[in-house]
Each structure stands twice: as C-alpha cells, then as structure tokens.
Design brief:
The protein is α+β, with helices and mostly antiparallel strands. It folds into 2 domains: about 190 residues, no CATH class; about 190 residues, no CATH class. It is built from 11 helices and 12 strands. Strands 4-5-9-6-8-7 form a 6-stranded mixed barrel. The protein has a 4-stranded antiparallel beta sheet with strand order 3-11-1-12. A two-stranded antiparallel sheet has the order 2-10. A hairpin with a 2-residue loop joins strand 7 and strand 8. Helix 1 packs across helix 9, helix 2 crosses helix 9 and helix 7 packs parallel to helix 10.
Length: about 425
C-alpha cells in the first residue's frame, strides 16, 4: 500500500431504510395514524363531493345547451349583402363550425303538395350541406337541386316518406299577373322532430337560388330541367346566411365579427352567460371552501407530524448517531405524511363515489332529463390527488425541518 493514499468507504444511501422505518413507525402508532387518516378523509370527502357537484351540474347544463343546435346559431337579422369571397374566408375561421349562404327570407318559402294532394303553404326552405348541425349525421343530404329532406312534422302533415316525391309551387307576380312554376322533388330523408319541430324542407342551395331568380324575374320560366347544379356558384353575393359557432365560447367572437362587418345578428347570449355566471359563482364558492379545508387539513397534519417528531427526538438522535444523513432523517416525516394523505384520499374518494351515486340516482332526472348531478373526470381527480399530496408534503415540511435540526448530543442527554 502506497503511503499517502487515501480510501473513501462508500456507504449505501439510508433512504430505503428510512422509508421502511417510517412505515413501521406508522404501523406501531396505528391508532394515532388511523385518526390522522380519518381526519384527512373527513376533510377531503365533502370537498370532492362539492367539486363533483359543481363539475356535474355545469357539465350537464353545458351539454343541454350544446344538444340544442340553436344555442350555437348566430342569426343574421333581416337581409344584408354578404360577398361570396368574404363568406368563404369567414367560414374558414376556427370558431365557425358551419356556414352556408341563404337567399332573401321572403324568397325562402315554397307551397308543397303531398302525394295524396294535401297542401302545405309557405313552407320554410332551409339550405343545407355537409356538417349541418340540424341534420343528424345518419341522414342523407340532398346532392341535387331536386332532392330535399323534410321535417317529421311536415312528413306527417303531407303523408311523406323517405324515397317518395312531392310537388313544389313557386309563385310570383309579374305586371299584376300571378304566375307559378311547378317542380317535382324527391324526398331523400326525414329530419326528426327533436332537431326541428316545425314544417320545413332542407334542400341544396341551388334550388333556393333558381327559385329566387324566378321570383325576381331573372328567369322567364322555371321547370324541372332548370334544376341543375351550379346555379349558386354563379352568385357573387347573398342576402343572408346560416351560421353556427364551434362552441359556446365561440358564439360571442362569431357575433362580434359579423357586427364589425356591419351585419346585425341575434344570439342566445343570455342563456350562455347565465351558465357562465353560474359556473363562476360555484367556482368561487368551491375555492373558498377548498382553501379553508386545505388550511385545516395542512394544520392538522402538520401539527400531528411535528408533534410526532418532538415525541421521538431521542429516536431521531440515535439515527443521526448511527450515520443517517439529514436527507434520510427529513424523509421520515415527509413519507409518513404522504402515506397518511394517500390513504385518506383513497377513503375520501370511496366516500365520494357513494355520495355521487346517491346524488345522481336521486336528482339526476331533474337536471336536463338525463345528466350528472355529480361527476369528476379523470383529469380533475388526478389534480385533486396531486393537490392532496402536495399539501401533505408542505404540511410535513415543518416536521422535517425540525427533525433535521435535532442535535444528537443534546437529545441523548435526556437518557
């Protein structure tokens, strides 16, 4: 051995042993540990239920609004002038879910005659295309100007079925003379009443355009042969449009953009704002209660952990004399706090599941027919779990600091 050569003896870290000692200490004082666990669970369970109620009620209210496509509709009030190029650019904006031009409102009606000669006068004609919020995804869309979808109420009124045919009459007055054009249309599907609860037909935009041209005198006559694709593509401007926002939060931006363009619009902003205000109120109430509960949990857990450190000062001193470094000593109260918080959260979550099931069973039918009064999605649950463990670590930090400051020699003098 060469003189002057020093050797450093490497020792394994003490943190695995510290974790084992922390677990054994909790089991040794299991009565006190269980009281702490139940304390944490008693604080967290009402908070989880309150958070579930807030989330569930707001989620159901938002879902009920979204189930009604009219909530997302931005109605162009009256007639205006909308350039095709501007409409195409506006439709590509991320907050616009659906947009299709329309003719003047006064020209968007037809008289209809069913197969048994029953008549429906001045039936609303609605242009449609792929992605129409009012048309269920499983319904076929008109692909030609002579094809239409009819609403369930109109189908019942005229005795129409999918695959059947009906007659449309377009009227106009020319130099004091009343004229009419007759068109044969094919019914390709029926829109259920829960989507549109009135008499209406959904058609390709080309049918509306040729009907308006006929009424305006731009066509001398209108026959089935004139129902050809491409009539709408020749238009450079339209008097109206059907516009739907991509979500509740997108209704206001869509309306604001249209108003800035000089277009007067109507929305269901009042209903949407009511849900938002309710959400903000519940969120504020929950934050206040959660803050008070978290402080109570932190004080109770932190005080118990610090008291436990004070009671076991001599044991901790012995660990220090046996070579445990500061980090391993501090790890003991931190690990105990995390274990208590984790078990307490588990019990609280089980209590939440029971309470949520009771709330949903008893009250779920009173909220939008079918919905959740109380629910927590995975992201919210994981956030609550992480917040609980973070609070536990923060609460135990005072005990950990006190453990790191214990002087082994001073503590051993008490023997």
């Amino acid at each position: 051995m060469t003189s002057g050569t020093s050797y450093r003896v490497s020792r394994p870290p003490h943190w695995p042993l510290a974790l084992a000692l922390a677990a054994k200490d909790l089991w040794h004082d299991r009565s006190a540990s269980m009281i702490l666990v139940l304390t944490v669970a008693a604080i967290l369970a009402p908070l989880l239920l309150l958070l579930g109620l807030k989330t569930g009620v707001i989620w159901t209210l938002r879902a009920s609004l979204l189930q009604d496509p009219r909530t997302l509709e931005v109605i162009v009030y009256g007639n205006t002038r909308l350039d095709r190029a501007w409409l195409e650019g506006f439709a590509r904006r991320p907050y616009v879910a659906f947009l299709i031009p329309k003719t003047r409102t006064i020209n968007a009606t037809l008289d209809l005659i069913g197969p048994d000669r029953r008549i429906a006068q001045a039936v609303e004609v609605i242009p449609t295309a792929k992605g129409d919020p009012l048309v269920p995804p499983d319904r076929p869309l008109p692909v030609r100007p002579d094809q239409v979808l009819v609403t369930a109420t109109l189908a019942e009124r005229l005795g129409l079925t999918s695959g059947g045919r009906l007659t449309a009459i377009v009227k106009r007055d020319t130099d004091g003379r009343s004229e009419r054009a007759t068109l044969e249309l094919e019914v390709v599907g029926i829109v259920p009443e829960n989507r549109v609860a009135r008499d209406a037909v959904f058609t390709d935009l080309d049918l509306l355009v040729v009907a308006e041209d006929y009424r305006d005198g731009l066509r001398r006559e209108l026959t089935d042969a004139d129902l050809k694709p491409g009539s709408a593509a020749q238009r450079e401007s339209f008097s109206n449009a059907r516009i739907y926002a991509a979500g509740l939060d997108a209704v206001a931006p869509v309306a604001d953009t249209l108003r800035a363009h000089g277009v007067e619009v109507r929305t269901r902003a009042e209903q949407i704002q009511t849900v938002r205000a309710f959400d903000e109120t519940l969120s504020f109430v929950f934050r206040v209660i959660a803050l008070i509960g978290s402080l109570g949990c932190a004080l109770a857990l932190g005080g118990a952990i610090r008291g436990n450190v004070e009671r076991k000062r001599r044991d901790i001193a012995l660990l220090r004399l046996l070579g445990f470094e500061n980090s391993s000593v501090v790890l003991i109260p931190l690990a105990q706090s995390v274990v208590i918080a984790a078990i307490g959260f588990t019990l609280a979550y089980l209590a939440y599941l029971a309470g949520a099931a009771a709330f949903n069973h008893a009250l779920g039918t009173h909220l939008a027919g079918r919905g959740y009064v109380c629910r927590l999605d995975a992201a919210v649950g994981l956030t609550a779990w992480a917040a609980t463990l973070g609070t536990a670590l923060l609460a135990a930090s005072a005990g950990g600091y006190r453990a790191s400051r214990i002087d082994p020699a001073e503590a051993l003098r008490e023997y």
